[in-house]
Amino acid sequence: MVRRLILFDIDGTLVDTMGAGLVSLRNGFFEAFPECRGREFPPLDLGGATDSGVARFLFDHFEVEHSTETRERFFRAYADDLSSRFLKSDEIKGHVLPGVTSLLEGLSRNERYEIALLTGNTMRGAFIKLERYGIDYHFKTGGFGDDHADRNRLGSVALARMAEVHGEVFAPENTLVVGDTVKDIDCARAFGAKVLAVSTGGVSREVLEGATPDAFLTDLSNSEESLARIEMLF
Ligand SMILES: [Mg+2]
């Protein structure tokens, strides 16, 4: 039996944090670099972005030195803010998107499938968000926004990590990316994986289909239909 790997994007695909990530990026940035406080925080285009890409953009904008130390300082302050705000559940709304929980359960029960993450979130940020909404236990690993600023590199990272950490090698053609932006479609293409696009993150069907994913679903609300579509792709 050939096993298949399904790599899920997080924001707009599995969960809607209703902007919690953006607030924590801003809070975390000013916490890490207090000398920048009082200056206006620039608008961020987060759809399909990576946190390393966001860091690079903010460091350019605020003329912060680019280094491993400054990046880690920023990511730590961001995740601390996200985590502490998520603990105050009355402050953070947001939810798991419809059908996601039963789809993840269905895939986890099916021995033909392994699931992992392919997200622009840092690894810690990813698991804080998933834990907040109670779906973290489905995931062990993946490719993350602190692995590389270029999302198109994250698919290979996810496959390498599956092989190195979990001892299971997946070929790109046996891998499917599920995501909500054109950048998810592009990053699947970049490593030869298939891609299922969903328009639960605010990007329209027209725009997503214009990027020719292998399959499109408006949402994942009907988990049997979602599973059937995934089956058909292999
Ligand atoms: Mg997304």
Descriptors:
234 residues, 9 helices, globular, Rossmann fold, 8 strands, binds magnesium ion, alpha/beta, 6-stranded parallel beta sheet, 44% helix, two-stranded antiparallel sheet
Written account of the structure:
The protein is an alpha/beta fold. The protein has 2 domains: 152 residues, 3-Layer(aba) Sandwich (Rossmann fold), CATH 3.40.50.1000; 68 residues. It is 44% helix and 13% strand. The chain is built from 9 helices and 8 strands. The protein has a 6-stranded parallel sheet, with helices on both faces. It has a two-stranded antiparallel sheet with strand order 2-3. Helix 5 links the parallel strand 4 and strand 5. The model has no long low-confidence stretch (mean pLDDT 95). It binds magnesium ion. The site of magnesium ion has 9 residues, from loops.
Task: Give the SSE layout.
Blueprint: E1 4-8, E2 15-16, H1 20-32, H2 51-62, H3 68-87, E3 95-96, H4 100-109, E4 113-118, H5 123-132, E5 142-143, H6 154-166, E6 175-179, H7 182-190, E7 194-198, H8 205-210, E8 215-217, H9 223-232
Parallel strand pairs: 1-4, 1-6, 4-5, 6-7, 7-8
Antiparallel strand pairs: 2-3
Helix pairs in contact: 1-3, 3-5, 4-9
Magnesium ion binds next to loops.
